[in-house]
Amino acid sequence: MSATNTGVPAPLDTTLPSPVPSEEHEHCPVTDILRRIGDKWTVLVIVLLGQRPHRFNELHQGIEAISQRMLTRTLRGLQEDGLVHREVFATVPPSVEYSLTPLGNTLLTPLSALATWAIENQPAIAASRHANSLPGQNS
Amino acid sequence: MSATNTGVPAPLDTTLPSPVPSEEHEHCPVTDILRRIGDKWTVLVIVLLGQRPHRFNELHQGIEAISQRMLTRTLRGLQEDGLVHREVFATVPPSVEYSLTPLGNTLLTPLSALATWAIENQPAIAASRHANSLPGQNS
DNA sequence: CTGGATCCGAAATGATACTG
DNA sequence: CAGTATCATTTCGGATCCAG
Fold it and tell me: Where is this region: Disordered (chains A, B) (predicted)?
């Protein structure tokens, strides 16, 4: 049933295209993208690569808390989706340079919007989270 | 594999784990938000609630593929962060209405930007993902 | 220097039964 | 109707070893 809209226009200043296809067979691409960039390190890698191309060890040292395995997995995932370009230089020792593809570069725009929102509202979220986690001792 | 539990007491999976068990390293709020909305169902719930308030079963039937457990956990997480408001009506039978808070409503703006990007570039991503997964005879 | 392979624990998710 | 409790499965993430 796609006609769930009973003539009630959403009074929102943001026009959501229609990210809910209401089809259990097909999942919306929004969820798909969120599942891709919603992991622990993907966004950090994208942001770093958005500044300039990095080599493997540059990324590894730039994030510092990521393991080699997760860095490789993250880059492979981004590369598979066409967001990151991998170029191997047959030097000695070998070096691999990672960079954002044009497609990956366009992701920086909506990602920065979300980042701005997160930074702006992080105190409010932290406050609400902390308040709801505590038992109501005062009232 | 087999049940080789080393006497681990059954953890209560319905209780939300402590957000910060100890003096964990402080990570950027962007990653924090991505970890929150990057799960499997949170965005769908936010979008549905962005259209209009929904009751529990409305959300459950609107998504259809989510289990009661995950719907409850998703709503609890959003409620804890102050993005979703929960109002109980002491009727018979009881009904609970969920709606976006003003803070949660502001999330729709950057989320719609990301949704638009995802819908726009979903074909390109799917094509790249499919091409790289195949043993294609490229170059 | 890059990164694949393997093992392990933790967390997320799903299915189901039960309850006020 | 709106959850909660429990269990099983999958996925995620880290540590380590090993290879080109």
Answer: 1-25
What is the pTM assigned to this prediction? 0.81
Residue A70 at interface with chain B, using a CB cutoff of 8 Å: no
Tokens of A37: 């960039």
Residue ranges in chain A assigned as alpha helix (H): 29-37, 42-51, 56-63, 68-80, 102-106, 108-133
Protein residues with beta carbon less than 7 Å from any atom of strand D:
A 35, 39-41, 65-70, 93-94; B 3, 10, 12-15, 55-58, 68-69, 72, 75-76, 86, 93-96
Chain B CB within 8 Å of residue A10 CB: yes
Domain range B19-132, its CATH number among 1.10.10.10, 3.40.50.620, 3.40.50.150, 3.40.190.10: 1.10.10.10
Alpha carbons B127 and B121: distance in angstroms, whole number:
10
pLDDT digits (tens, 9 = 90+) for B54-91: 999 999 999 989 999 999 999 999 999 999 999 999 98
